[in-house]
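Protein in question kept underneath.
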Amino acid sequence: MEQKRSYGRMLLVSTLVLLLEAALAVVVAMVLGQTRESPNSGGNYALGILALPFLALVGVVLAAVVSAVLVLPAIWLSDALGRRFGGRTAWWWVPLAIGAVTLATVVLMVPADRTEWGRAIEWRLLAAALLTAPALIGRSRRRRLFVPVLLWGTLAVAGTGAVGALALGTGLLPEYRPPTVTPAALAGTWSDGKGGTLTLTPDGRATASGVDEDTSFDDAVKKCAGQGTWMLRPGTNAWDQAVDVNVGDCSREAWNVGGTESRVTLYHYIGDPDSWDLYELRKAPGSPR
């Protein structure tokens, strides 16, 4: 049974749909993130779980703002266009109205560099698709709309997560793992591509030149150089392995192993680990593999 639309009802439903879309996007990103090379894929999500209440509150506020500023005006515009050009409102005016508005912002917000237009249009089309769903559902006049949307949306999010976990568990989606290395494979010269090098010899000697230091939370990047020793800590799995380097005035922070079997990298974080700002070394050309 249908009922008259109300601003509050449309705002509530639109906010819910946007939150469900965000939850679905997070689940998909987490699943796909496990398949891609990333220094954080093997980490735990304890901090993320603890931050969920705060993130949920921020998400509700943002979804409500987007609904009020973009979705509801789009519903009004689609209705106005329908009555003006068709004599009645129709659902297909919703994606047309949202698409026209989002694409129009390309001209207003894209830099003068025309090479960015393609990417800008792609992002606008994605935004239009994400806004179309809450607009279409929010404009519905059906009674008892909130609970069915909540139930079916939650089922979709949970189902996507379950399918993703099953795909990862069965190997249908190959989960990323850092390459397992040996001391012999690490021996050689590693370069940051900017002049900084770290040379590891098979007998456990190490020489650093112009290597970036972890400056903790300082903005300045310190270079270090000197001679010393190194050793590989295999760890219990590929994620735990690390290379301990004790060289001159360089810090004794262990280097993590990343990359792939054919392209091994050594890396550590610069500054706050939460920023994911990595300093990475790769085997220099001509160095033994």
The helical segments are 7-33, 46-50, 52-85, 93-109, 117-138, 146-170, 183-186. The beta strands are 188-191, 197-200, 205-212, 223-233, 242-247, 255-260, 263-269, 278-283.
